[in-house]
Amino acid sequence: MRRSAESHAVSKIDIHGVAARARVSIATVSRTINHVPTVDSRLAQRVWKAVAELGYFPNTQARALVSGKSKLLGLIVSEITNPFFPELIQEFEQVAVERGYEILIGSTNYETSKMELCARRMLERKVDGVAIMTFGFEDLLLDRFAVDNIPVVFIDPAPSRPLNSVLAVDYRAGINEGVQHLAVLGHRKIGFISGPLRLRSAGSRKAAFLNCLKSAGIKADVSWMVEGDHTLDGGRDAMQRILALKHLPTAIMCSNDMTAIGVQHALFDAGFKVPEDFSLIGFDDIHLAEYTIPPLTTVRMSCKDLAQNAVGALLSSLDPANIIKSEALNKISTRLIVRQTTDLPRNALSDLKQNPKSKRPSR
């Protein structure tokens, strides 16, 4: 029995075993698995080889106690049901793990009580930094992070605090490409379905759309500017309200892809075809947008860019040696992805036949 117990004790894999296998000190193993950059690269290779061969799993809680850092990054999103956010979570986790961090996820569903719960969970788990990829976050909750000197990165405008960073999304560039695309096709009657206008992002997207219409010389019809809620049901309901109007637009832009897919459903139910009767453009370019019928033309906002910039901003705050020197690194670009939900306005070809001298809109 004693020999069996001794064999079991010898086979136990810990940092001492890794150090012996790699022929390095315990301190070198510790610095290596904590990603300390000053470790000699040859020694680090030996440590990681020993870790792989022994199947050693570092005790992250013990590391946190020693270092005073949890090696956790918090990520707070609006909702899990919108495919954009699972895609963002996947990219964020990949980037964080590559940098030696784990992630803690919270979803607010746009509810104040859930926002408070998310903030409390982040504070209880002693996260090193938080990426807030949702909107309407209360200043009081942000103050709680500030008290503990926890860096926070936001998407879009945010309160100015020493450890706050902002990812500035260039909504105008992609939306302008969308408006210009519709204008070139011949559309002059363009509606817009926004997200909840209490959210900064929804207001920013609508303002960008209206500015782009003005720049294109197209008059905005307020009856075609409808507030949605960024959901499938919200898109369907908003389109039904537009269809109840006496005069209809020939094209619809939406504040996100989920809204646009809901619009497609409403048009199908009403007996209309996309793009023959209505051209349609979404925003986000979720993976599902490629698989709608027909595939959705949309403005792409890269989840990969958001994740890389968010993690980079947090780590820059945590490590002054890596401070981002240019604000351009925190800018998120957007661009139009043309698929099959946009075409000439309905009756455009028949109008041309009746007025052969008129200039045909270019596709």
Describe the structure.
The chain has 14 helices and twelve strands. It starts with a helix and ends in a 9-residue tail after the last helix. Mean pLDDT is 85; it is low at 1-10, 324-328 and 357-363. It has a six-stranded parallel beta sheet, with helices on both faces. Strand 1 (72-77), helix 6 and strand 2 (102-107) form a beta-alpha-beta unit. Helices cover 45% and strands 15% of the residues. The longest helix is centred in the middle third of the chain and has 16 residues, at 200-215. By secondary structure, it is α/β, with parallel strands linked by helices.
Q: How many strand segments? A: 12
- Topology order in helix (H) and strand (E) letters: HHHHHEHEHEHEEHEHEHEHEEHEEH
The span between the termini is 83 Å
**Major sheet description:** 6 strands, parallel
Layout of helices and strands:
Layout: H1 2-11, H2 15-22, H3 26-33, H4 41-54, H5 60-67, E1 72-77, H6 84-98, E2 102-107, H7 112-124, E3 129-133, H8 139-147, E4 152-155, E5 164-169, H9 171-185, E6 190-194, H10 200-215, E7 225-227, H11 232-243, E8 251-254, H12 257-269, E9 279-284, E10 297-301, H13 303-318, E11 331-332, E12 334-337, H14 348-354
Parallel strand pairs: 1-2, 1-3, 3-4, 4-5, 5-11, 6-7, 6-8, 8-9, 9-10
Antiparallel strand pairs: 10-12
